[in-house]
Amino acid sequence: MGTRHTIERARAEITTRDKEASTSVERNRAAWNAERETLLAHAEDDAKERVNQALERWQNETAAVLAKAQQEWLDAEETRLAVAEIQWR
Questions:
Q1: How big is the CA angle at 65 (ends 60 and 67), to the nearest 5 degrees?
Q2: What is the pTM of this model?
Q3: Residue 37, Cα to own-chain centre: how many angstroms?
Q4: Angle, CA of 69, 70 and 76, to the nearest 5°
Q5: How far are the Cα atoms of 51, 52, 64 from residue 56, in angstroms, in the given order?
Q6: Furthest-apart CA pair in the chain: how many Å?
Q7: Can you say whether the dihedral through the CA atoms of 42, 46, 47, 52 is positive or negative?
Q8: 3-class SS at 60?
Q9: Is residue 40 within a helix (H) or strand (E), and if so which, with residue range?
Q10: CA atoms in the 13 A half-sphere facing the CB of 38
Q11: pLDDT per position in the chain (89 positions), as tens?
């Protein structure tokens, strides 16, 4: 009876440890999933911010190029008008 009792206690201990390990694994998995979701959300926010910054930079660069082109066109028109006035005199 002593050996049988020892085997039963060992089986009970194994069952208990197995349940504890399963609980620990589930708890760790849940924590990891929560952390992963947080990291993914931050990565998405960072990506959106970089896209917004790139868009703003592109808009500013485009506005600067258009303003320069417009000024160059106005300068060229002013020169053409001056030449035309001289030719008409």
A1: 95
A2: 0.56
A3: 12
A4: 90
A5: 9, 6, 12
A6: 130
A7: positive
A8: helix
A9: helix 2-88
A10: 6
A11: 578 889 899 999 999 999 999 999 999 999 999 999 999 999 999 999 999 999 999 999 999 999 999 999 999 999 999 999 999 88
The C-alpha atoms of residue 65 and residue 71 are separated, in whole angstroms, by 10
Distance in angstroms (rounded) separating the CA atoms of residues 69 and 63: 10
Q: State the pLDDT at residue 4.
A: 82
Tokens 């924590």 belong to residue: 31
Residue 15: per-residue pLDDT: 93
Distance in angstroms (rounded) separating the CA atoms of residues 9 and 17: 12
Q: Alpha-carbon distance 62 to 56, whole Å?
A: 10
